[in-house]
């Protein structure tokens, strides 16, 4: 099964340190999303890329967060400096997104595949 | 502004019972409504999805009911099993936004044996 690979799975760091999370999307997928999951806020969209170009990062605190896609096989999310309130699970998801309505809703129709997440704890 | 509201936050159902999770949306431009299932330690995975041109979609024990005029949709799990215990998220997106999903807050379902 094709999968989205995220590293690290777990990260504990101290406030002020830089954190970099990495994502390898499924080969051939043209869209990559970064989501953050917390108990209080649920799943929040941070940023997303289409064909490696950033399309929307309005959900991301710009002063400390940055997202990049240096090549088609790697997306990164960086936090510098990290703060305790950044503690969350960060998910990467990828999909082969077509802009045309493809008819059936289900497998193959703009489906997102999520990675297993990176659990970040900032002390 | 919370564009997709999901209820209840948690749900306990006996094995064999029906689990019902509801979602309401505000943006009439939404035209794709998936449900994702998440097990502990895993990422969400697509369970079932519907477009607004149909009022119901069924896949095995899972059914989405869609009410366009009320801007509501729900997930029904028939004959609920302990293995269905997970967190369920409804979501919505606009086709012209390339499926940028807006998620509901999630429902933690526990099916008791």
Describe this structure in words.
The complex is a heterodimer of chains A (123) and B (113). Chain A has 123 residues and is mostly beta strands. Chain A is 0% helix and 50% strand. In chain A, strands 2, 4, 5, 6, 9, 10 and 11 form a seven-stranded mixed sheet that branches. Chain A has a four-stranded antiparallel sheet with strand order 1-3-8-7, with no helix packed on it. In chain A, a hairpin with a 2-residue loop joins strand 5 (42-50) and strand 6. Mean pLDDT of chain A is 89; it is low at 101-109. Chain B has 113 residues and is an all-beta fold. Chain B is globular, with a radius of gyration of 13 Å. The model of chain B has no long low-confidence stretch (mean pLDDT 92). At the A-B interface, strand 4, strand 5, strand 9 and strand 10 of A face strand 4, strand 5 and strand 10 of B.
Portion of residues within helices of chain B? under 10%
- Coarse morphology of chain B: globular
Task: Please give the radius of gyration of chain A in angstroms.
Answer: 14 Å
Mean pLDDT of chain B: 92
Largest sheet of chain B: 6 strands, mixed
Category by helix and strand content of chain A: mainly beta
Structural class of chain B: mainly beta
> Please, what is the average pLDDT of chain A?
89
């Amino acid at each position: 099964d094709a999968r989205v690979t995220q590293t690290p799975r777990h990260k504990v760091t101290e406030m002020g340190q830089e954190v970099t999370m990495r994502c390898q999307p499924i080969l051939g997928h043209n869209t990559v999303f970064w989501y953050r999951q917390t108990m209080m806020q649920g799943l929040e969209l941070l940023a997303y890329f289409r064909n490696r170009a950033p399309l929307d990062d309005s959900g991301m605190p710009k002063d400390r967060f940055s997202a990049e896609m240096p090549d088609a096989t790697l997306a990164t999310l960086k936090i510098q400096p990290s703060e305790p309130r950044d503690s969350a699970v960060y998910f990467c998801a990828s999909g082969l997104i077509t802009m045309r309505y493809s008819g059936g809703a289900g497998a193959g129709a703009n489906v997102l595949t999520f990675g297993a997440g990176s659990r970040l704890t900032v002390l | 502004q919370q564009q997709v509201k999901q209820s209840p936050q948690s749900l306990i159902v006996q094995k064999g019972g029906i689990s019902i999770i509801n979602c309401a949306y505000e943006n009439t431009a939404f035209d794709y409504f998936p449900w994702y299932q998440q097990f502990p330690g895993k990422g969400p995975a697509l369970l079932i999805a519907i477009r607004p041109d149909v009022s119901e979609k069924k896949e095995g024990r899972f059914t989405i009911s869609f009410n366009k005029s009320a801007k509501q949709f729900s997930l029904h799990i028939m004959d609920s099993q302990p293995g269905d215990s997970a967190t369920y998220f409804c979501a919505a997106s606009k086709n012209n936004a390339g499926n940028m999903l807006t998620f509901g807050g999630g429902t933690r379902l526990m099916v008791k044996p």
